[in-house]
Specification:
- This protein has about 160 residues and is of the alpha+beta class.
- It is about 35% helix and about 30% strand.
- Strands 1-2-3-4-5-7-6 form a 7-stranded mixed beta sheet.
- A hairpin with a 2-residue loop joins strand 2 and strand 3.
- Helix 1 runs antiparallel to helix 2.
- It starts with a strand and ends with a strand.
Length: about 160
């Protein structure tokens, strides 16, 4: 496995990893039309992946194929200059439970440490038990903040100290 920063040419592969990962947990809860509409948006976003100085997009490769991705940057809600947001970690479902998500997570933590970020936040869909367990196993805890999510649910914000 190789963890590296994404390059412009990785956009299409990163989009498909994101789509496969999110569809795995939304399947059966969010209608297909909504999933397809968001997939088209993601293909456009990652297909024209701009280089942003305030974000890091990481890729996980296995045998030269991108099978995971993680994106970090400033929080969507201003929480201070020392706070970073982990927007997402996605791994293709056929590569779950192989340490890929943990390796991506460590890359994000290392980038934050190097950049002086001391607190991280991430939002997790309330019905995504797998993601909640993953983040909890890596030291993240709910901080009481929520926002509306799809299918009458909510997103739960988790927080952790970056050491």
């Amino acid at each position: 496995m190789n963890i590296r920063l994404a390059e412009r040419a990785d956009g299409a592969a990163v989009a498909e990893v994101h789509i496969e990962g999110r569809n795995a947990y939304y399947n059966g809860h969010v209608d297909v039309e909504t999933l397809d509409r968001r997939a088209a948006q993601l293909r456009g976003i990652y297909g024209d992946m701009p280089t942003r100085f305030d974000r890091n997009l990481w890729c996980a490769e296995v045998d030269g194929e991108i099978v995971g991705m993680a994106l970090v940057g400033p929080p969507q809600e201003w929480l201070g200059p020392w706070v970073g947001e982990l927007y997402q970690i996605h791994v293709r479902p056929d590569h779950w439970r192989r340490g890929i998500g943990s390796a991506l997570h460590e890359a994000c933590m290392g980038a934050w440490r190097a950049g002086g970020i001391t607190v991280g936040v991430v939002e997790v869909w309330s019905r995504n038990d797998r993601a909640q367990a993953f983040y909890e196993s890596h030291g993240w805890r709910a901080d009481g903040h929520t926002r509306p999510g799809p299918a009458g649910t909510e997103y739960v914000r988790l927080r952790r100290t970056i050491l």
